[in-house]
Amino acid sequence: MTSEASPDLVVEEGGGSAPEPGATPSVGALVVVLVGTFITVLDFFIANVAVPAIRSDLQAGAAQAQLIVVGYGVAFTAGLITGGRLGDLYGRRRMFSLGMALFMVTSAVCAFAPTIDVLVVARIAQGASAALMVPQVLGIIGTVYTGAARGRAFNTYGLIVGLAGVFGQFIGGALISVDVAGLSWRTIFLINVPLCLVSLAFVKRVIPESRGAGGTRLDLLGALLVTGSLALIVFALLEGQERDWPVWVWGCLAGSAVLVAVTVLHLRRRAADDAGPLIEPALFRVRLFTVGLAATVVYFLAMGSFFFILALYLQQGMGLSPLESGLVFLAVGAGYFGASLVSARFAGKLSARTVACGPLTLAVGYTAIAFTADGLGPQGSVLWLLPMLLVAGLGMGLTTGPLTNLVLGAAVPEHAGSASGLMNTAQEGGAALGVAVAGSVFFPALAEAGNSADAYPDAFALTLVPLVALGLAAAALVLAAPGRAARG
C-alpha cells in the first residue's frame, strides 16, 4: 500500500476532510479516536481492581464477579470483526459515533447498576458497544493520515493501548481509594460519560466520513459464524482454567473448531461469488499481513497475561494494596512510554527485523523479573523489580505500535475496516486468551503449594517461563515476515 489514497476508497464530505497529498492532517481526529481507544481498553483492565468492592457491595458470587470481566471481554473480542466490516459498509465515522454513544449509555448503566445481574448484562452490552467503536479507529487513522504522519499515528495508537493496560490498575485503585461522593467502584464506569460526551461533540468537525468501496450488504451469516466462533473459543478458554477444564468446556472448543471450518468455507464461497464476505480472504494472500497478524496474537498472549499475573503476585503474594500495586505498574508504563516515543520518531524506517527487537526485549525483561522474584521470596522488597519491569515496558513499547504499523501497512485501504477488525481481534483476543494460558500454570502451581502467600513468588516465576517462550515466538514470526519497512 502506498501513502496515496486508493481510488477504491470512498471519502465523503460533511464534516472533516481528507488530507491533501503532502499536507499535515489535523491532530484533532487522532485525539478523538484515541479517547475511544483508551476508555475501551481501560475498561477491560480496570474492572479487575474493582471486583472485590463490587462483590461486597452487590453481594455477588464468584461466578458472577468473573462475568463482570469475562462478559465484557468476550463480547468485545467476538464483535470486533463485524464492527470493522460495518464501518467499511456504512461509514467509519458513523459507526464510531454510534459505538461511542452506546458505550456512554452502557457505562452509565454499569455505574448505577442496582444488582449484580444488571451489572453483568450492562458489561456485556458495553463490550459489544466497544466492538462497534474500536475497529473504526485504525481504519480512520489509515485513511485520514498519510506518509510519515500515518506511521506516527499508528505508533501513538500503540502507545495509548499500552498505557491504558498498564495504568488501568493504577487509575482504578486511585478512583476507588479516593471514593468520590461515596460512589466507590461506580466511578470507574461513570468517568466514561463526560469523556464520551466531549469526544462526540467534536467527531463531525475533525473526522471525515470514509468507507470501503462496493456498498455490498453485511454478510449476516458470516457475522454470526465469526462472532459465534470467537465467543466460544474465548469463553471456553477463560472458563476452562477457572473451572478446572470440565467436559462441557472441551465440548465448546470442539464446537468452535467446527464453526471455524464452516466459517472459512462460507467466506471463500462469498468471495468467489463477489458477494462481499465479512472477512476478505484476499487479505491473507499478503504474507506480511498474515505473518504479522499471527505475531500480534502471540505477542498479546504474552503481554496481556503478564498484567494479570503481576497484579495477583503484587497484591495477594506481596501484600500490596491496589493503589500500591498500581504504583509499581508505573515502572512498566515508564518504559512503555519512552520506547513508544522513540519508535514514533522512526516510524517510517522500521523494518520487520527492527520490530523483532521489541518482543526479544520483552523476553529478556520477563526472564530478569522471574529470577528476581524467585530470589526475593515473599519477604523481599518489590523495589528490586522496578528496573526489570522498566525493561519489560521497553519491550512492549518497541512492539505494540510498530507491529501495528507493519501489519496494517500491508492492507489495501478499501479493506481497512476488516483489517483493523482483525488486528483488534488479534490484540484483544490474544490478551484474553493469554489470561487463560497464564492461569493454567499459575493457579495449579499455587494449589500444589497449598495456596499460601509464600507460594506466590515461585508460581509467578514459573508462569513467566511460557511468557518468555511466547515473546521469543513473536520475534521469530516477525523475522519470518518480508523484510520491508513499516510503511506510513
Features:
single chain; mainly alpha; two-stranded antiparallel sheet; 2 strands; disordered N terminus; MFS; transmembrane; transmembrane helix; MFS_trans_sf
- Return Rg in Å: 21 Å
The count of strands amounts to 2
Beta content comes to under 5%
| Helix-strand string | EHHHHHHHEHHHHHHHHHH
Number of helices: 17
Major β-sheet profile: 2 strands, antiparallel
- Record the strand order, biggest sheet: 1-2
Shape: globular
Give the mean pLDDT: 81
Q: Which segments are poorly predicted (pLDDT under 50) over 5 or more consecutive residues?
A: 1-9, 17-24
Distance between the termini: 9 Å
Estimate percent helicity: over 70%
Verbal overview:
Residues 1-21 are annotated as: Disordered. It is found in: Cell membrane. The protein has 488 residues and is mainly α. It has helices at 28-58, 62-90, 92-111, 116-144, 147-178, 187-190, 192-206, 220-242, 247-272, 287-317, 322-345, 352-355, 357-376, 386-397, 400-408, 416-448, 456-480, and strands at residues 9-12, 209-212. It is built from 17 helices and two strands. Helix 1 (28-58) runs antiparallel to helix 7 and helix 2 (62-90) runs antiparallel to helix 16. The longest helix has 33 residues, at 416-448. It starts with 8 loop residues before the first strand and ends in an 8-residue tail after the last helix.
